[in-house]
Amino acid sequence: MAPLKIDHLAVVVDNLDAALNFWQGALGLPLGGKEHNEHEAVDIAFLDAGGARVELLQPIGDESGIAKYLAKRGPGMHHICFAVADLDAAMAQMTAAQVELINTTPRTREDGTRYAFVHPKSTGGVLVELYEMAGEQA
Q1: Is 129 helix (H, G, I), strand (E, B) or coil?
Q2: Helix, strand counts (H, E) of the chain
Q3: Is pLDDT larger for residue 109 or for residue 9?
Q4: Tell me, what CATH number does 48's domain have?
Q5: Could you tell me the CA-to-CA distances from 78 to 55, 89, 102 in Å, in that order?
Q6: pLDDT tens profile 46-96
């Protein structure tokens, strides 16, 4: 199942407000919304960028995956996310192609969006997220 489009590019930041000064203030990207995600232990800001979004991720505590990433690698590019019409089919296709998935079963966001991550070992070093948007059709 081919990706429909790039949904977002995720950037890890140590200070969401400071990051918004650049992305929203200086660059002029409109803020599409903010989210406090306890399950992933991050605060998120989504900025519209011409059909795709920039997702800024600030860890809430010190134990989340994003916090560990920030401590090890510092702020910067984290992952690219592709929207897919059928996440289960996309994951089955990846598995059949012997692609290593981080999530063997999809996770679901509060808004109903289902997602899974592909391990960078299988992508040439890039963390890839697959999104199946709630209620969207191909």
Answers
A1: strand
A2: 3, 8
A3: 9
A4: 3.10.180.10
A5: 10, 25, 15
A6: 999 988 999 999 999 898 999 999 999 999 999 999 999 999 999 999 999
